[in-house]
Amino acid sequence: MTDLIVVKNLTKVYRMGDVEVRALRGVALTIREGEMVAIMGPSGSGKSTLMNIIGCLDQPSDGEYYLDGVSVADLNDNQLAEIRNQKIGFVFQQYMLLQRTTALRNVELPMLYGGKGGSRHERAMAALAAVGMDERMHHKPNELSGGQQQRVAIARALVNEPRIIMADEPTGALDTRTGEEIMGIFQKLNREQGITVILVTHEHDVAQHAERIISVRDGIIAGDEPVQGRIVAGATVAAVATEAEAMDEVAS
Amino acid sequence: MALLESFRIAWGAMLTHKLRSLLTMLGIIIGVGAVVGMLAIGEGYARYIDAEFNSLGVGTFYVNPSVDRDADDETLRPQLTAANAAALMEPGRAPAIDLVVIELNRNGVVSAGGERFLFGVKGVTPDFFTIGAQELGDGRYFTDEEDLASARVAVIGQNVATTLFGGIEGAVGQRITVNGVQFEVIGVSVAQQSQIAGAFGRFSDPGEQVYLPYRTARDRLFRNDVTTRVDVSSLTVRARDVEQIDEAIRQVTEVLREEHRLTYQANDFRITNPAQLSAQFQTITVGFSAFLGTIGGISLLVGGIGIMNIMLVSVAQRTREIGLRKAVGAKRRDILLQFLIEALVLCLAGGAIGIGLGYLLSFGGTFVLYAISQDPNIRASVSLFSIILATSISASIGIFFGLFPAIRAARLDPIRALRNE
After folding, report:
1. Which pLDDT value is given to residue A235?
2. CATH number of the domain residue A232 falls in
């Protein structure tokens, strides 16, 4: 397996008025293609900053970052946008769906800014099918449960066939059971499509779904270990989907 | 990002906030409406003024026996005669003119055997009836032969006919007396009063006149009322064509000064050119247009600022959306274009409604113009030019005032935008 993400001596300094905040103080890290990694750490540890840099939303103050062999530190705004569009899929805690827009249109969003050819509609439908949401593609977010909204968000992250999915507290707003189903989807995507998944979380239970946990503390990497006794969210995605729907119906 | 998609999003955003969008557009609507209405009404008014001047006779001007009040020479007395009219028509003397009509305007006591009425009496040469908007209701006009023979024939205005005979029908062939002299009615004129003739001293309503051949009036009715210096009220002169009117005025002045043997003195006659008044009327139109144009301009400015304001609000409210779009790969240019197109769509929609308002204004203007002119052909109509103008103004405002909010949106840092609550 090739090294997809290589980070060397990464630092990030913010200026807040007169105070300099050193969010990252020399981080070195390698993530290989097809890995499923959790980045853990308490708030203020620098894990969000690390995620933003790895996700090409932000640039490091110093150090090197190679994504798929490309030196990200040398890229401009437009090139970063293109990398996010083509290589990275984001999943957020708050889903971040456009409220007045159908699931299908939400999933089509990344393709508006650059796609990989083929019909937008068909590719969006395929992505929705992959997370078991194809039957609700014409629903708007307020007609969907939290778990369903997060599935739509995952479909949106998938639609441009990224190398990496970055999930920032993807289960933070969900109950345990729905969260488990969402984790199941990530594991399936990682296992069956070989997509590199990076979870950012402060919950140990969530991190245990990954193969490897990277702990960040005070701007440096405090631990980097394979997971002992990894939790595998059972069931196939399809079964999970059916289950979720059944549960939503009970809930409503 | 595809432009079409941006327009679709912008259209959707506008429909989502219908009331807010409408209020935002108000300035644009009023501004565009004022401009479109102004152009329509102004053009209609200009056409009306044109038509009025044409009804006086194209290329005509007037000569009156009159001395400038401010003239230093107190010995100067007004002078103008029928002989002057003949001199003007002598071959080669004033080649730029093709017609001179003599008018002698007085009042007379008119009767058809019963009650007696006071009406205007106009002694005119027959060519009078070939100038301007004349219309014969019944019978005929008199001829040059009848004028030369001082024939006792009369053409009466329609109000005279109604007063004396209860209507136009049956008036022809009747006998009337004017100041005790008997005349045969040979025609009834139904010419309309010009709305603007009063502006240069021609107040008489054609309907209230009795028209007699000039020589009949001079020799049979008003012999004691004319002098050798002044035996006409005015001459109406027609130039060969409209372009030659200035040359015609110059030639007429020269001939009259010769005839009156004026050397160093000022003119003892006055020439009035309606075309100059026409220019003054057009100035009024320009003033009116400038007024509405100013209202339109201020409204458009205020409207533009309103658009900018609401776009800034929109950017603030949708910060997270902008963050998300950037996270999934939107470039600065994409965001810039999206918000610019939203401002553009708002302004164009406002412009479209404003054009509708302009149509309403022009309908109102048509009513007013009709009330003034009584002519259904005079209407305020919205031209294609003003629609194109309004559309391009709206689009320019959208781009100009939308640019700042759009730049602000495009520059948002995706991380902060995503965290925005």
Report:
1. 46
2. 3.40.50.300
| A209-238: pLDDT as tens digits | 999 999 999 999 999 999 988 888 764 444
0.80 exceeded by pTM:
no
The answer to whether residue A11 sits within a structural domain is: no
Greatest Cα pair distance in chain A: 55
Count, residues in chain B: 421
- Nearest chain A Cα distance for residue B342, angstroms: 16
3-state secondary structure of B189: strand
- pLDDT tens for A20-44 read 888 999 999 999 999 999 999 988 8
Alpha helices in B135-239 (DSSP H): 144-148, 158-165, 214-216
Q: What is the DSSP string of A90-115?
A: EE-TT----TTS-HHHHHHHHHHT--
- What residues of chain B lie within 8 A of the CB of A140, using their CB? none
Chain A residues with CB under 8 Å of B326 CB are: 57, 81, 84
Handedness of CA A244, A93, A223, A7 (dihedral sign): positive
A26: left (phi over 0), alpha (psi -120 to 50) or beta: left
A245, pLDDT greater than 70? no
Alpha-carbon distance of B44 to B368, in angstroms, equals: 10
- Determine the distance in angstroms separating the CA of B303 from the nearest CA of chain A, rounded to an integer: 28
Question: If phi over 0 gives left and psi between -120 and 50 gives alpha, with beta otherwise, what is residue A33?
Answer: beta
Residue A187 inside a domain? The answer is yes
Domain presence at residue A60: no
Residue with tokens 């027959």: B126
The per-residue pLDDT for range A160-194, each reduced to its tens digit, is: 999 999 999 999 889 988 999 999 999 999 999 99
Which residues are CB-contacts of B37 (< 8 A; sequence separation ≥ 6)? B292, B357, B358, B360, B361, B362, B365, B380
Alpha helices in B56-170 (DSSP H): 82-89, 144-148, 158-165
Asked if the model's pLDDT at residue A204 lies above 80, the reply is yes
In which residue ranges of chain B is pLDDT below 50?
none
Chains A & B: contacts with CB separation below 8 Å: 58
Contacts of residue B7, defined as CB under 8 A and 6 or more positions apart, other chains included, come to B341, B345
**Distance in angstroms (rounded) separating the CA atoms of residues B59 and B53:** 9
CB contact under 8 A, B328 and A77: no
Residue A240, both tokens: 């999970």
E strand or H helix at B136: strand B136-139
Q: Which amino acid is residue B4, in one-letter code?
A: L
| Per-residue pLDDT at B196 | 65
Q: Rounded to the nearest 5 degrees, what angle is found at the Cα of A173, between the Cα atoms of A171 and A179?
A: 35
Q: Is the dihedral of CA A51, A54, A60, A63 positive or negative?
A: positive
Q: Which of the residues B5, B14, B318, B328 would you substitute to probe the A interface, choosing the one with the greatest number of A C-beta atoms within 10 Å?
A: B328
Q: Alpha carbon B114 to chain centroid distance?
A: 43
- Supply the range of the domain harboring residue A167: 35-47+85-251
Q: How far lies B180's CA from each of A179, B116, B186, in Å?
A: 118, 10, 18
Q: Is residue A184 one of the residues assigned to a domain?
A: yes
Q: Which two tokens stand for residue B167?
A: 């209507």
Q: What confidence score (pLDDT) does residue B419 get?
A: 85
The total of structural domains in chain A comes to: 1
Chain B residues interacting with chain A (CB cutoff of 8 angstroms): 1-2, 5, 12, 16, 320-321, 324-334, 414-415, 418
